[in-house]
Amino acid sequence: MSDNRSAIERVISSADADAIGGHSTYCVGCGACAILDPALSIAKNSDGCYCASIDGTLREGGAIASSVCPFAAGVDENEIAKDQFSAQTGIQHDQYLGYYLKTYVGFVNEDGWRSRGSSGGFVSWLAATLLREGLVDAVVHVKDGPDSEHMYQYAVSHSVEELATGAKSKYYPVEMSHVLTYMKEHDERYLFIGIPCFVKAMRLLCRNDQLLRSRVKYCIGLVCGHLKSDFFAKSEAWEAGVPLEDIRRVDFRYKIPDSPASDYAIKVDRSDGGDPIIKRTNELSTTNWGLGYFKYNACDYCDDVLAETADVTFGDAWLPQYVSDSQGCNVVVVRNRTIQNILDKHAQELVLHDSTPEEIYQSQAGGFRHRRQGLAYRLDVHKKRGEWTPTKRVQPSLEGIDKRRQKIYAMRTVLKNESFVAFTEAEKANDFSAFIRHMRPVERKYYRIQTPFLRRLLRKLKRLLKKMTHRP
């Protein structure tokens, strides 16, 4: 393909040379492009990830679609957020949080919002409050889907009762082209809820489509580690004991009473009429988030952890002083004065502790390292090989990244790639243990690189000493 391809063509068609088979590209499959250009369509690929494909002649040579793609647009998160938030009195800016008015850690303290949510219950509570107070007519969010191949999907809710199936985190692939069509056809005021790249896509759409700009009133952002292929849900349920053909739906954040917030389970509903299966995630092979199994390739080329273009962002408070609470707590980053006023107005319903940008950063420190320093490394590798990558705020560089850290980032790419290969092998063999056998040596290599030799030696000595002291 010639060098004069449009940005959207590059995102969709530029295979990442580090991916297995060279098939993974930089498309996150959000669906924003498809609503403006009929030459584009969105579908799941063989890896269980949504992606765009070109089925005709692109409008204006691809310029229209490129302008709303979160990985192709020439407008980045800094510019979008500056236009949205910088004029507000009291606004501040941080290199990791973006613009912010206030930061908190806390939870909703009424009507069971917290128990029904993944952590502090803020996302559903705020959506319900905006509906009740007449600030929006409808909420665009991810809800239960129709079948096991579409466990979750974007949908529109018009009442607090309808919001119920949108509670909790869904680590599952989704796209939004169909709800965008609904939003253009129905004159309503919308609240949009999504992960960082989806919120960015919505903001870009509003910049380029006057109708959507007039209808999208607020965006709630969700802190994001990365987006998962549907292999993730299938692998969790399968390893928990439900055959692939009997999986109906996976609740990814089933709370365990009296356990730390980080010690949660999955609940698998079955299509064969059997009782649901509940299994702690720490007993499963694929749930270590740091290993990046079944991660969308595009996620390794994103530098926005905290949904910087959203009016408010909520995430898990992975902090020592909060993680022991089994009900969970949210980190909260407020960027819109109206949202701040709502929190102030309903203060008696909430438990909010003032926080700092440093504390918010620490709650997601691993994600920031991977998406800032790790991204600088990945971009540098591609640049030196003369390969195209999306333009990011992070610059290609190895500055401050020692050799061991470079190997860690390289192995994370291997882990991601091999997880897809391993799951496909397991499916063909109809045996999940084939996945474990494939991945175990890859994991071991990663942990050897990640853990310095002296620390590994010390751990072995401690284990040996423990065995000796427990001998009869």
Q: What's this entry about, in short?
A:
With 472 residues, the chain is of the alpha+beta class. Helix content is 38%, strand content 18%.
Please describe the topology of this protein:
Blueprint: H1 7-13, H2 32-36, E1 40-44, E2 50-54, H3 63-66, H4 77-85, E3 92-94, E4 98-100, E5 102-108, H5 113-116, H6 122-132, E6 138-147, E7 150-157, H7 177-185, E8 190-194, H8 196-208, H9 210-215, E9 216-222, H10 230-240, E10 247-254, E11 265-270, E12 277-280, E13 312-316, H11 320-323, E14 330-334, H12 337-345, E15 350-354, H13 357-363, H14 365-384, H15 403-429, H16 433-450, H17 453-469
Helix pairs in contact: 15-16
What can you see in these coordinates?
- With 472 residues, the chain is α+β, with helices and mostly antiparallel strands.
- 38% of the residues lie in helices and 18% in strands.
- It contains 17 helices and 15 strands.
- The chain has helices at residues 7-13, 32-36, 63-66, 77-85, 113-116, 122-132, 177-185, 196-208, 210-215, 230-240, 320-323, 337-345, 357-363, 365-384, 403-429, 433-450, 453-469; strands spanning 40-44, 50-54, 92-94, 98-100, 102-108, 138-147, 150-157, 190-194, 216-222, 247-254, 265-270, 277-280, 312-316, 330-334, 350-354.
- The protein has an eight-stranded mixed beta sheet with strand order 7-6-8-9-13-14-5-15, sandwiched between helices. It has a three-stranded antiparallel beta sheet with strand order 10-11-12, with helices on one face. The protein has a two-stranded antiparallel ribbon with strand order 1-2.
- Helix 15 packs antiparallel against helix 16.
- The longest helix is centred in the C-terminal third of the chain and has 27 residues, at 403-429.
- The protein is globular, with a radius of gyration of 22 Å.
- The model has no long low-confidence stretch (mean pLDDT 90).
